[in-house]
Amino acid sequence: MPATSVPTTPYDDQKPGTSGLRKKVPVFQQARYVENFVQAIIDCIPDRAGTTLVLGGDGRFLNREVVQTTLKIAAANGFARVLVGRGGLLSTPAASCVIRKHGAIGGIILSASHNPGGPEGDFGIKFNTANGGPAPETVTAAIYARTKALTEYRIVEGPDLDLDTIGETRIGDMTVAVIDPVADYLALMRELIDFDAITRLFGGGFRMRFDAMSAVTGPYAHAILEGVFGAEAGTVLNGTPREDFGGHHPDPNPVHAHDLYELMLSEAAPNLGAASDGDGDRNMIVAPGLFVTPSDSLAILAAHAHLAPGYAKGLAGVARSMPTSRALDRVAASLGIPAYETPTGWKFFGNLLDAGLITLCGEESAGTGSNHVREKDGLWAVLIWLNILAVTGKPAQDVVRDHWARFGRDYYTRHDYEEIDAEAAKRLMDGLRAKLAGLPGTKLGDLTVAAADDFRYVDPVDVSVTEQQGVRVTFAEDARVVYRLSGTGTAGATLRVYIERYESAPDRLELPVAEVLAPVVKVANDLADIAALTGRSEPSVIT
Ligand code: G6P
Ligand code: ZN
Fold this sequence. Notes:
By secondary structure, the chain is of the alpha/beta class.
């Protein structure tokens, strides 16, 4: 089967966003849409001749078709080898792991993360580079430029490959190796996590429920939790990947993982509840009767990571995205290690991880990870939690409460105003920026402004500057409000308001979150004039 060149005309909407090209399925179903984008990615891998590429996705609708197309295009473009997960599956963190382990030149990951799937749902294609992390802005800009200039794509036409049998086949001059999507990831987890301690924990009657949300982590969780640790059958809920995620929204939070959340707050709660998203990079942790906010979970992991073999030597440093609560900073201070504050978006951790400045990092948006891969890793977070519970012998809820008793508690909530008018959102942010200089020292409600700025990030490694990453106002009373516009929304604009307040008095650690934060919420609403400018008296989502 020889390679052929097929003439094509560019699409003008193939600009990758935060996590690659993400569009509705029918957009990807247009003639040559996938072919164009894949060829554009490949054209931006100049030294690809004779190299290995990794390929897989979260199993959503179109996954198999796009895997087949991508293999045929890769075969016509000089790669020696493609490693593809069986069934076309690879979770995002597992793809990152496989790229690094096999010295691949990069990977093409098919996913729209936590967005719904199915014929009317979303699909996505993203490119990760040789370090296993999402392509940096320079690369995605080059890909976009290429999509607008393409005149042809190259392909080896032929019958579809069998993706369901492990082993090697060839298309043209290229080898296609269908690999077990779990094996390399499992081997890496064995190096980092105390599997024996966790196996003993389950052997002693420990019970958990892990909701794979009918998405990609099902096979990983089945293999590790039930297969290796011997957790009871039924530990993994919704463990079979479905093309439409069973009609659900595979985002691990109390709203979309509602059944698990309710179970954990009920009398029948097992010892731990956890969930992961469509492509396996996000996580949710729920202790019996107690939801663990992602910001608290990150701080707790940092405080206990040394209990896991992979982190026994301690952490070089830690990082959190700016809107993530400052709970992590308190742990870093007590450990005597640096804490970095980055803009929202996992890619900003890449340089810090590559340079060895940090070991652990995370975001309020349910992402936690470490230097083991270059993506956030949902199941890894769950395994570290299990490792901590196994070694300390403490119930999960006590781990959280003990953490608050030691470090104090950063009460935290996020108010989202979805699908507001984009112009109004811009006016609101501009209005805030105009007020910043005059704010320090002023009294708003019961709070006194200590500092106010628009977050500007200078990358400590390459000294690149990223401006306007969110307006933050901190108060003398150890409270903080952050305003930013979502970078992932698809309709209109989404305003996110992150509200937090620190309490350390022993009798103020278990108060209702809304009650503690009410005065800060009022100040946040008034300062930005949210109701008047957006026409919304209430947020659309409160988490
Ligand atoms: C994606 C990225 C995360 C980021 C999140 C922010 O999930 O992978 O790193 O935190 O988007 O989304 P937002 O809608 O707040 O811009
Ligand atoms: Zn995801």
